[in-house]
Protein: Phosphatidylinositol N-acetylglucosaminyltransferase
Organism: Starmerella bacillaris
Amino acid sequence: MRTLWVKRTVPDNYIHPWFLSQLKRNEVVANYQYKKLLSDFSVLLLNMCNSVIFVLSFVAIYARNMKPQYFSLTAVILDILMAAKLFSEKSEAEALAALKSLSITVFSVMVLTPVFRSLTESTSSDSIWTLCGWLLVVNLLFCSRSLNPISINTSLAATIMLASRLTTSVDVFYFIMYNLQTFISVPAFYMWLRKNREMSAYNYALLGLTSLVSTILVSWLLGSSVLYIWILIQALVLFAVPRLFLALQRYKDRISGPWDAAVPILS
């Protein structure tokens, strides 16, 4: 601290060598590994694939008159496989608690289905498509390595709004249940697999299955030209973007000194 009215024998911009010796460069900057970044960016790819599956499944139901029961049945089979693996690692009390939550969710959706079906009757379809698009963008922006409440809420809002454009309550119920599995069950199971390193094979299998389903839907509903673009986007997100992120770390330059507040280092 300098007192301006006291005359000094050195210039105002004088810096003592002791001060310079205390400076440290990039002391708390994390060192990223490419393999770890691949695992982290796979979460973003999973959410992108889930969003594509969500949109294209609605297109198949709404425009191609496909029954949502087919999508829901596929999701139920996948849920049974995930639950069998999950409950084999959990205690009986945790398994019963999960089944209780599932029963409450199914009952709540069943009761509220008539409300959901008539929710947007006075709203134009163009407004619904636009709003759902922005909700999915927010969902992708807030996706993280854990289930982010904002990401979950925006995906649920988009699901309910699109479900309200279907014609029957049965279709609405099946569509909502199917997308609850898509946006909650699959990401939750994927997060759990990522925490268990010995289950990395199941982790990659689930990501590959999700990517395959989204690719098949893109090929079926949008054609081969969009299919190539979608495959390229997946490859860029999973392999090129982590490499770019790693390359940009060399430009990170942070100088810290004794005047800086302590920065906690979380292991």
